[in-house]
Structures are given as structure tokens and as C-alpha cells.
Write a structure and sequence with these properties.
This protein is an alpha/beta fold. The strands form two sheets. The protein has a five-stranded mixed beta sheet, sandwiched between helices. A three-stranded antiparallel beta sheet has the order 6-7-8, with no helix packed on it. The radius of gyration is 19 Å and the shape is globular.
Length: 197
């Protein structure tokens, strides 16, 4: 869910579009079996564009290689292909974008290479957008490893931002805006995140 929200916000800022439908609002033939897109946006000229979102990542300590990129690209382009075919006429869009979010340029280059080599039929009419994030580990860590926490809690060993040094009401409010990420899932620079609530 987090990656879809980030995807929409990025595309909204890039294209000035509006959210038209989310995944559960889109109707398909064979809805229990069809691949589905994540959301649909309405462009300024009222064209509908479907967005399918995924992340290029591996577990901590594992190397992301070309085979991973090729497997992801083929799998997600197949999803795009079948959602394009199975969406009902009333919800049909003009274009579909595969939005891949990843955390470094090397993975992005592997994805580009994989896209060039994929079956031409799967590439037809699809725009692939790759976003490389910086300091956004929350996009790649499962929710169960992330907790809302106060820096005074002794159960946590990772770092928190220094919002708890004062007893002011403002700092008290900030306690609920800190996302804790265990340090084994973090780089040195990204151990805490401030949410805009």
C-alpha cells in the first residue's frame, strides 16, 4: 500500500493528474482470476491512464542481479498485458504505465536492460517508469518490521530522530510522527523518518 501511495504522489506531481479509481473500484472480466492494475489517474485532457506499481528489491544481504530484474519485468508486464485485456469497457484506460520503484541506479540499469530483452508483445503500448529513491527504506521493509515508537522505549536498538529532547507540547506531538526501522534493515543515513501528518 505504501508504494502505491508514493507512486501516485510522484506521478501526480509529474503529470498534474487526479486519482480516478483505485484497485478495488476497477471492474474486470473474470475478476477472481484476472491480473489487476493498482490505480487509474485522469490526465488534464481527461484521458485515463492506469498505473501498475512494483518494487525492485531483495532481502537484506542479497544481491539484486539481472535474473531478478528480468523475472520482475516479465512478471509485471504479463500483469499489465492481462489487466489491459480483461478490464471492462466502462473502466477502460487509454494507456498503462508500469511504475517500478527501486533504491539504487544499478538496479535501474538492470531493469532497463531487462525491458529491452523482454518479449516485444509484452512491451507493446506500455510505458515503464523507474523511480530511484533516496533515504526511503520504509518502502522496502515489511510493515511488521516497522513500528511507531518513542525514543524513550528501551526495547529498540536502532536510531530515532532527536525529536524527544524537549518536553514541549510540539515535541510531544512529534512522537507519533516517528517511524522506527530496526537497524539491520537500514543504511547508516536512514534510520528514522518524519511523516507529514
Amino acid at each position: 500500500m505504501t508504494s502505491e501511495v508514493v507512486s501516485f504522489e510522484l506521478i501526480r506531481r509529474l503529470a498534474g493528474c487526479k486519482l480516478a479509481k483505485t484497485e478495488m473500484d476497477i471492474a474486470y472480466d473474470f475478476p477472481d482470476h484476472s491480473k489487476k492494475t493498482d490505480y487509474v489517474v485522469s490526465m488534464s485532457d481527461e484521458r485515463l491512464v492506469a498505473i501498475s506499481v512494483t518494487r525492485a528489491m531483495r532481502h537484506p544481504g542479497k544481491t539484486y542481479d539481472y535474473e531478478d530484474a528480468a523475472r520482475l519485468m516479465t512478471k509485471k508486464l504479463l500483469c499489465v498485458y492481462f489487466s489491459n485485456r480483461n478490464v471492462l469497457r466502462r473502466d477502460r484506460w487509454a494507456q498503462q504505465v508500469l511504475h517500478i520503484i527501486t533504491d539504487d541506479n544499478r538496479k535501474a540499469r538492470l531493469l532497463r536492460k531487462a525491458f529491452k530483452k523482454v518479449d516485444p508483445e509484452l512491451k507493446q503500448g506500455v510505458v515503464v517508469l523507474v523511480t530511484v529513491t533516496k533515504n526511503a527504506r520504509f518502502l522496502y521493509v515489511k510493515d511488521r518490521y516497522m513500528t511507531l515508537a518513542r525514543s524513550t522505549d528501551s526495547d529498540y536498538t536502532g536510531s530515532l530522530s532527536e525529536t524527544s529532547s524537549s518536553d514541549s507540547e510540539e515535541d510531544e506531538a512529534n512522537y507519533n510522527r516517528v517511524i522506527y526501522v530496526p537497524k539491520e534493515f537500514c543504511t547508516q543515513a536512514d534510520t528514522s523518518w518524519q511523516l507529514e501528518i
